[in-house]
Design brief:
It is a single chain. The longest helix is centred in the C-terminal third of the chain and has 18 residues. The radius of gyration is 33 Å and the shape is elongated. The relative contact order is 0.12. Helix 2 packs antiparallel against helix 6. By secondary structure, it is an all-alpha fold. The protein has 6 helices and no strands.
Length: 152
């Protein structure tokens, strides 16, 4: 049997061969995005859902309700000697000042009180002093939900 060991193949440079495969199946080096550009997720990277930030009114209402939960709710006085507060006192504690968030939270709370308990209420203290703790809490929770949906 006669076996031929010579071929008519031309010698290929191994570096050139590697470069050809690199062009066919590239593995790109990671490139840092410019400082001003936001990162763009690739086709197989799941982006985190956007984080919702509470509006100032929603935060004030939420903080005031947390204050009532922690320190207690009171009727007929702004601040009870034991630390409990009425609804307006809790709003003042949460807002820290009579600012736009304080006014917006107060207006939304009074509007919700009127929705649930009638239009005769001309102020938060008069409404607060005329209702039970459960009724007051229901108004607070509804006002927080409205602020959330209104994104304020």
């Amino acid at each position: 049997m006669n076996t031929r060991t010579e071929t008519d193949f031309t010698h290929i440079d191994p570096d050139l061969y590697a470069k050809a495969f690199e062009l066919l199946d590239p593995t790109p080096e990671p490139v840092a995005p410019p400082a001003s550009a936001a990162p763009v997720p690739g086709p197989f990277i799941l982006a985190a859902p956007p984080v919702r930030v509470s509006g100032a009114v929603e935060k004030t209402l939420t903080d005031a309700l947390a204050f009532l939960d922690t320190h207690g709710w009171a009727k007929h006085r702004l601040i009870h000697p034991g630390g409990a507060r009425c609804s307006i006192g809790a709003l003042r504690a949460a807002a820290g000042a009579r600012n736009a968030a304080y006014e917006g939270a107060g207006n939304l709370l009074l509007d919700e009180a009127r929705r649930q308990h009638g239009n005769q209420w001309d102020s938060i203290p008069s409404w607060n002093d005329s209702h039970s703790g459960a009724q007051v809490r229901s108004v607070w929770e509804a006002a927080i939900r409205r602020a959330h949906h209104m994104n304020i």
